[in-house]
Amino acid sequence: MLEPDKKYLSIREVSERTDVPPYTLRYWEKEFIQLKPERHSGMRKYSQEDVYLIKKIKTLLYDEKFTIDGVKKYLKVDRRKKTNSDILHKEPEISLSRKDIFEITKEIEEVLDLLEN
């Protein structure tokens, strides 16, 4: 989240917050029409919505294994269904396997046992 007195972030600040290299951010600007940071004195300035979009693109590409074209289609279709705000603020869905659920349950039971003793 941006500091209250800061409306925009530099490409370096966005890179640090999203763990996406600056050269990748520049490439994504060319690929995704939705990602258009403002320019002030020739410098890119990213808004909070830009940061949310970058995080969404990163999740789709790296976690959900979408292709660049797949992300483009997803953002295009999603934009028709919802407002930009809904798209950008939607948290990625988490899917857990039975094994994951079993392990989490086991860990919770162990913590509860420790608390009871």
Provide tags for this entry.
6 helices, elongated, 117 residues, 5% strand, mainly alpha, two-stranded antiparallel ribbon
What does this structure look like?
- This protein is mainly alpha-helical.
- The chain is 62% helix and 5% strand.
- It has six helices and two strands; from the N terminus they run ααββαααα.
- The chain has helices at 11-18, 22-31, 48-63, 68-81, 84-89, 98-116, and strands at residues 38-40, 43-45.
- A two-stranded antiparallel ribbon has the order 1-2.
- A hairpin with a 2-residue loop joins β1 (38-40) and β2 (43-45).
- The longest helix is centred in the C-terminal third of the chain and has 19 residues, at 98-116.
- It is elongated and about 65 Å long.
- The model has no long low-confidence stretch (mean pLDDT 83).
Helix count, DSSP H or I runs of 4 or more residues = 6
Mean model confidence by pLDDT:
83
The total count of strands amounts to 2
Unreliable spans are none
Q: Roughly how many Å apart are the termini?
A: 40 Å
Kindly provide the radius of gyration, computed on alpha-carbon positions and rounded to a whole number of angstroms.
Answer: 19 Å
Q: By helix and strand content, what is the structural category?
A: mainly alpha
User: Main beta sheet, described?
Assistant: 2 strands, antiparallel
Q: Indicate the proportion of strand residues.
A: 5-15%
**What would the principal axes of the Cα set say about the shape?**
elongated
Can you list the strand order of the major beta sheet?
1-2
